Predict the 3D structure of the following.
Amino acid sequence: MNVSLTPDLDRFVAEQVRSGEYNSHSEVVRAGLRLLLQQKRETEARLARLRGEIEEGLAEARRGELVDGEEALERLLGRSRAAGESV
C-alpha cells in the first residue's frame, strides 16, 4: 500500500522519526491509525449511549412522565454537580 501525504503531514511524520520517538514512517502512520480507530470506536459508543438515552426519554414521554423546563434544568445541574463539573 502506498499513501500520499500532504507536505505538512510528511514533515510531521519525518519530525516524529527524527525525534527518535518512532523508528520509521510506517510506525508513525500505524500509531495515527490506531488513534483514529480508537476515536471512532469511542464516538460510536457515545452515539449508542445517546440513542439509548433518547429512546428512554421518548418512552417516558409516551408514558406521560414529563417534567417542565425548570425541573429539567435542575436535574441537569444536579447531574453536573454530582459529576464534579463547574456550573
Remarks:
- The CA atoms of residues 54 and 67 lie 15 Å apart.
- The chain is about 75% helix and 0% strand.
- The chain has one domain: 7-82.
- The mean pLDDT is 94.
